[in-house]
Specification:
By secondary structure, the protein is α+β, with helices and mostly antiparallel strands. The chain has a domain of 99 residues. Helices cover 39% and strands 19% of the residues. It is built from 3 helices and 3 strands; from the N terminus they run H-H-H-E-E-E. Strands 1-2-3 form a 3-stranded antiparallel β-sheet, with helices on one face. The longest helix has 44 residues. The radius of gyration is 38 Å and the shape is elongated. 10% of the residues are buried.
Length: 150
């Protein structure tokens, strides 16, 4: 095994520095045009971030409002059915009382041991906050109670 000698490298000639080129300024098209399009303050970038962020925040609010409305709707329907079955005035039908308080479907099922099983339903809608759900949210709340009044 033999080692070959390395050839000497020729020196590199120094390169003369290049003079910097001055940037060309665009023509002025007016104060507002120059201010919004040539001022590098991040107008376009902030708009590109702000629009999806606003849709995200409104979507989260829409989901939170939908969950809250469903809970409030089911609680209010259960309260109406429960009060109507337990505290209906004597001689007054609890179904009429439930219907007068906004329930759309009411029914009574007689029980074998006496009393009745009262069912009530109501369709609720919540408004829309985002363009992702334009019609809002529509849901059905139901309530059930046992009435033991003779």
């Amino acid at each position: 095994m033999s080692i070959e000698p390395i050839e000497p490298i020729e020196p590199i000639e120094p390169i003369e520095p290049i003079e910097p080129i001055e940037p060309i300024e665009p023509e002025s098209r007016g104060f507002f045009f120059d201010r919004f399009f040539f001022d590098e303050q991040g107008n376009v970038e902030s708009a590109l971030v702000l629009l999806p962020l606003m849709i995200l925040v409104l979507s989260i609010l829409q989901i939170g409002m939908g969950v809250l409305n469903r809970e409030v709707g089911s609680t209010s329907v259960q309260s109406v059915v429960n009060k109507s079955s337990l505290f209906s005035p004597s001689g007054r039908d609890p179904l009429i009382l439930m219907g007068s308080q906004g329930l759309t479907e009411v029914s009574a099922i007689p029980l074998t041991g006496g009393g009745e099983l009262y069912l009530g339903k109501r369709v609720d809608t919540s408004p829309s906050l985002t363009p992702l759900l334009p019609g809002g949210d529509s849901f059905t709340s139901s309530g059930i109670a046992i009435g033991e009044n003779p």
